[in-house]
Amino acid sequence: MENRYGSLAAWVYHLDKPIGRSFGDIAFYTERLSGCDGPVLEPAVGNGRIFIPLLEAGIDMRGFDASPEMIAHCRKECALRGLPAPVDLQRFETFSYAERFAAVIVPAGSFQLVTDPETACAVLRRFHEALRPGGRLIVDLDPLSSLAAAPGAARQWRDGDDLLTLREDPVARSFSRQTVLSQLRYEHWRDGALVATELDLFHLRFWGLLEFRLALREAGFTDIVVCGDYRPGTPPEEDAATFTFEAVAAGSE
Fold first, then answer.
1. What pLDDT, on a 0 to 100 scale, did the predictor assign at position 1?
2. Domain 146-205 adopts which CATH fold?
3. CATH assignment of 7-145+207-248?
4. Which of 87, 113, 118, 139 sees the fewest Cβ atoms within 10 Å?
5. Is the dihedral of CA 69, 70, 71, 77 positive or negative?
6. Does the global pTM surpass 0.85?
7. Which residues are in coiled coils (predicted)?
């Protein structure tokens, strides 16, 4: 099963990207959503790394994720801070809410987990339908050049007496489909003994800037702008590590 974020994967993610750890994105999203006049939805909310700081900043947040383990981390961290935990177990392809949103945000390249282009375009249309007239979509993407990047080195994390390790091995890379498939091997060790192992297939699709702009237009978005490395109003440079698109759902009914 691809991109499933099971128990060990969610644990490693929570150690590697704890609540509030920023890559420039938390300040960016806090500023872009300041004064937002309605609820904000974060699909693929994960452990709440960005979601919780936005809640703490007074933004009316909702979120969902396809991983029960990730949702459990997010709810636990909200409870520890005395915050509400308006997060649900849902998927990109089928999420549904009775209310409509002032903004939908997809930080950290999470949209790239949708690897089929037709499905991805359908998800963009679903975002459009979830927004109020004039609502904003904000999406982070990794650069297309990342398609050629080598897998990351083996890594490890300590959590008390527990040692968590991660090894990434390439499975397939398609330049025509703009996708990379890797096998992630998570291991949990204690006192030198292997406690548990988890294998995940991690699949990502990368987008060209013009390609994604056209996909947004096809989904009904207007006023599309893009910046690099969380510098709003600045055109992205060639070596930008992150591209962020903002678009307006003008004319939603």
1. 61
2. N-terminal domain of TfIIb (2.20.25)
3. 3.40.50.150
4. 118
5. positive
6. yes
7. none
